[in-house]
């Protein structure tokens, strides 16, 4: 059994904290804003819970893995099964269910939907598993074999980090999920389980501006033309070593679906592969907290 609180509540406010005076002063403005919002545009407050993955979460986890790997030749079902089998490591993100939600079966059991997954798989320990072989081949191709030396050294234990969630969920939820993952990795290592990592690999999702206004580009500073799908992965990229970055424009990416007007700034969906030394994990977590403050 996972040493994990099965209902760790992660509350997400729909607006920033404000004092009573500010609330009174802005009441009229808020009412005006609300009148301009459509029925589907209004913000709501949602409370999430981190839970250990179980068999019923298979399809939800597989769907989240698909938004990362898209059309890559990888058995995502096999990866999802590995994540579930080691359910003492990692968490899925689900909506908290209150007493007033007892009749939610009529809503299609939406409380059981998997909104996010935070976990790690030991690519070295599972090197003979077919889906892991496919992941390693994918990483080698996308990094021009920069990871070959690490993979070929039997003394290395390389973990593939998963940090996936629905696109509209704020990045603040990543902090307790990452904290819990670090704690579980330490506990598993102490118990003699194969989680004594030397390195971690993270595949980040980002969008890079493809605007052709040369004058605008000259005024930009480095990195300002990049949008991160998961904002907390920006400081992770700074802590680790970037081994590869590539476009996935030719693949179906729901994060950038829709049509673009000619004058709109356009973005190229990309993936970035980052290598992190395992000793830097606590520092990485500190950087994430500081970045999201």
TrEMBL record:
Residues 1-40 are annotated as: Disordered. It comes from the Eukaryota. Coiled coil: none annotated. Transmembrane segments: none annotated. InterPro entries: BCP1_family. GO terms for cellular component: nucleus. Residues 13-38 have a biased composition (Acidic residues). It holds the Pfam family BCCIP. Belongs to the BCP1 family. This is Protein BCCIP homolog. The gene is EOG090X0C3Y.
């Amino acid at each position: 059994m996972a040493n994990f609180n099965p209902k760790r509540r992660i509350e997400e406010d729909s607006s920033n904290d404000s004092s009573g005076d500010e609330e009174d002063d802005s009441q009229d403005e808020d009412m005006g804003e609300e009148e301009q919002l459509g029925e589907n545009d209004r913000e709501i407050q949602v409370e999430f819970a981190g839970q250990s993955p179980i068999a019923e979460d298979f399809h939800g986890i597989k769907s989240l893995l698909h938004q990362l790997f898209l059309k890559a030749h990888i058995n995502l079902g096999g990866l999802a099964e590995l994540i579930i089998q080691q359910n003492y490591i990692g968490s899925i993100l689900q909506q908290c269910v209150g007493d007033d939600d007892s009749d939610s079966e009529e809503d299609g059991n939406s409380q059981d939907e998997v909104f996010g997954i935070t976990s790690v798989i030991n690519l070295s320990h599972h090197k003979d598993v077919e889906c892991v072989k496919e992941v390693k081949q994918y990483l080698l191709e996308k990094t021009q074999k920069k990871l070959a030396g690490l993979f070929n050294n039997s003394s290395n234990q390389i973990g593939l980090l998963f940090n996936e969630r629905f696109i509209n969920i704020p990045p603040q939820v990543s902090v307790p999920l990452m904290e819990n993952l670090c704690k579980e990795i330490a506990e598993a290592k102490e118990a003699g389980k194969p989680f004594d990592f030397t390195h971690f690999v993270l595949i980040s999702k980002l969008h890079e501006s493809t605007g052709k206004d040369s004058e605008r580009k000259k005024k930009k500073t480095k990195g300002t033309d990049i949008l991160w799908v998961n904002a907390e992965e920006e400081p992770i990229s700074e802590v680790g070593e970037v081994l590869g970055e590539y476009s996935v424009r030719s693949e179906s990416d729901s994060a950038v679906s829709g049509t673009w007007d000619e004058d709109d700034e356009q973005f190229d969906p990309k993936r970035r592969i980052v290598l992190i030394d395992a000793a830097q994990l606590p520092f990485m977590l500190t950087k994430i907290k500081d970045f999201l403050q």
